[in-house]
């Protein structure tokens, strides 16, 4: 199929590349000329594992242009994946979607063929059937459901595994104007997805509610696990990992997203509960659960900063390993590592930071408040207290002797429990968030909590 993708950002470029890898002819469009130039020359404008290889293998089926009209005219389906930033009330603004859809509609006036417009950007319930539909019909002079289709088809992907998540999704969600439009998307996804996932087809409103519900349900679990972790830390003998492993064995609960650790971050999760509670309030429904999830998430940085500060005991040097909001990405939005670095530097600590991918993005925000370190090993060696805030696999591989000190032992706060107590026994004092350290290996997390 011939497909145009409007917006070549963190989601749009991977989608364009995955579609091309499955035999579709794809033209990408962006208002950012650098992104267009890069993709047109066979280079990925965004970082994502596996993306450059897939571009190299499918160069003949991927093109890029700043000319949205030309892209729409030579394709049958257009995916819209532009930003939908949070507005001042907590909902999402559709301004970029409306601008793109209006331009698509104007282009559609110049062709006769049936065309499907597919909004992939996350939008608030009521948007697709409301202002997006109006913008498309007004600009195109066409009736949605007759000579063009309009779908809402959000992706459920995580940065760092976007390509894999697109190829192996749990389900495909399609909000459709009519059966023909939804059928076009279902056919595309049959060619894209590896394991024949269920395609949930429904009206726009249900799809919009489903998208925001998936994210807020997952974050509710994360906040639940973090609340449990906070409780476990305060009860001698308790270990959140032991508790959640048993909880997750109950088939009504399940294991995923039940690890008590740090607050959730990134460009999607934190804003979704805010939008969900805004939606509930606007409708006169109770927003309590979404608000509590968000409140608990904001509290996690207080908890982390307090635990790190207690270990610091005045004036000593602290290292932070992990600045991206999760492994395998350079994105630092709402990252706990960056937030912790900012807080500790404000309290006049010497803060040393490292991240395999996100160092330059983080330094642009943190400036000269912190010292960037070229390697994790250098960071470990420079400090008295080390906090592991992102579970990068390479941090688990740091040799035990790197942590060793001739005098006062290195204090490590391992928020994701990636280091092995056995390996570091007698070398450093390892503290886990959510659990007491075993006797007699150094100070316990109880001491961190209660000093
Ligand atoms: N990144 C994620 O993990 C993720 C996951 C699920 C949903 N989403 C949703 O997908 C949407 C896009 O997110 P993203 O992370 O890819 O954003 P992004 O900011 O990385 O990329 C958006 C791109 O759209 C371009 N753009 C803006 N207006 C345009 C226009 N009129 N024409 C052409 N290009 C235009 C921008 O220049 C930018 O390159 C958002 O609604 C987001 O909520 C993102």
3D architecture notes:
The N and C termini lie far apart (64 Å). The chain is globular and about 80 Å long. Helix 9 crosses helix 11, helix 11 runs antiparallel to helix 12 and helix 12 crosses helix 13. It contains 18 helices and 14 strands. With 451 residues, it is of the alpha/beta class.
* Average pLDDT, all residues: 94
Q: Ligands bound here? A: nicotinamide-adenine-dinucleotide
Number of helical regions: 18
Low-confidence stretches: 439-451
Structural class: alpha/beta
C-alpha geometry? globular
Task: State the end-to-end CA separation.
Answer: 64 Å
SS elements, strand count: 14
Largest sheet, spatial ordering of strands: 3-2-1-4-5-6-7-8
Strand content: 5-15%
Residue share in helix: 40-55%
Concise account of the structure shown:
With 451 residues, this protein is of the alpha/beta class. The chain has 18 helices and 14 strands. Mean pLDDT is 94; it is low at 439-451.
Write the layout of secondary structure elements.
Blueprint: E1 2-6, H1 12-21, E2 25-29, H2 33-40, H3 51-57, E3 62-65, H4 68-73, E4 77-80, H5 95-108, E5 115-119, H6 128-140, E6 148-152, H7 162-167, E7 172-176, H8 179-192, E8 199-202, H9 204-233, H10 240-248, H11 269-283, H12 288-312, E9 317-321, H13 336-346, E10 350-354, H14 359-366, E11 371-372, H15 376-382, E12 385-388, H16 393-396, E13 411-414, H17 421-424, E14 429-432, H18 445-450
Parallel strand pairs: 1-2, 1-4, 2-3, 4-5, 5-6, 7-8, 9-10, 9-12, 10-11, 12-13, 13-14
Antiparallel strand pairs: 6-7
Helix pairs in contact: 1-3, 5-6, 9-11, 9-12, 11-12, 12-13
Bound molecules: nicotinamide-adenine-dinucleotide.
Nicotinamide-adenine-dinucleotide is lined by residues 6-12, 29-32, 35, 81-84, 96, 99-100, 121-122, 154-155, 157, 159, 267-268.
């Amino acid at each position: 199929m011939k497909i145009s993708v409007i917006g070549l950002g963190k989601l749009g470029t991977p989608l364009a590349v995955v579609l091309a890898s499955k035999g579709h002819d794809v033209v990408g469009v962006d208002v950012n000329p650098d992104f267009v130039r890069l993709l047109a020359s066979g280079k990925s404008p965004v970082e994502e594992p596996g993306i450059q290889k897939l571009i190299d293998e499918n160069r003949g089926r991927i093109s890029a242009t700043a000319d949205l009209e030309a892209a729409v005219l030579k394709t049958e389906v257009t995916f819209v994946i532009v930003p939908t930033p949070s507005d001042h009330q907590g909902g999402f603004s559709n301004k970029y979607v409306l601008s793109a859809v209006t331009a698509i509609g104007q282009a559609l006036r110049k062709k006769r063929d049936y065309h499907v417009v597919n909004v992939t950007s996350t939008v608030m319930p009521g948007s697709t059937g409301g202002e997006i539909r109006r913008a498309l019909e007004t600009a195109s002079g066409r009736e949605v459901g007759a000579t063009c289709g309009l779908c809402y088809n959000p992706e459920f992907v995580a940065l760092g595994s976007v390509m894999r998540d697109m190829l192996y999704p749990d389900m495909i969600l399609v909000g459709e104007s009519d059966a023909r439009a939804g059928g076009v998307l279902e056919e595309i996804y049959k060619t894209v997805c590896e394991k024949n996932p269920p395609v949930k087809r429904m009206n726009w409103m249900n799809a919009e509610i489903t998208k925001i519900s998936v994210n807020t349900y997952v974050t509710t679990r994360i906040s639940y696990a973090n609340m449990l972790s906070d409780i476990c830390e305060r009860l001698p003998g308790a270990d959140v990992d032991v508790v959640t492993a048993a909880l997750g064995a109950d088939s009504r609960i399940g294991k995923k997203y039940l690890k008590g650790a740090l607050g959730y971050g990134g460009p999607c999760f934190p804003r979704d509960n805010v939008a969900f509670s805004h939606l509930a309030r606007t409708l006169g429904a109770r927003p309590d659960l979404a608000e509590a999830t968000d409140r608990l998430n904001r509290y996690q940085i207080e908890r982390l900063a307090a635990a790190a500060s207690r270990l610091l005991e005045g004036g000593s040097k602290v290292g932070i390993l992990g600045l991206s909001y999760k492994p395998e990405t350079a994105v630092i939005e709402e990252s706990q590592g960056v937030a912790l670095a900012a807080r500790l530097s404000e309290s006049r600590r010497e803060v040393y930071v490292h991240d395999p991918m996100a160092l330059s993005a983080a330094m642009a925000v943190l400036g000269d408040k912190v010292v960037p370190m070229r390697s994790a090993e250098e960071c470990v060696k420079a400090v008295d207290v080390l906090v592991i805030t992102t579970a990068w696999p390479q941090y688990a591989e740091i040799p035990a002797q790197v942590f060793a000190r001739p005098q006062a032992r290195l204090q490590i706060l391992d928020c994701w429990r990636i280091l092995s107590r056995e390996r570091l026994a007698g070398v450093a004092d390892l503290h886990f968030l959510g659990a007491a350290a075993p006797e007699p290996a150094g100070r316990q997390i109880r001491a961190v909590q209660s000093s």
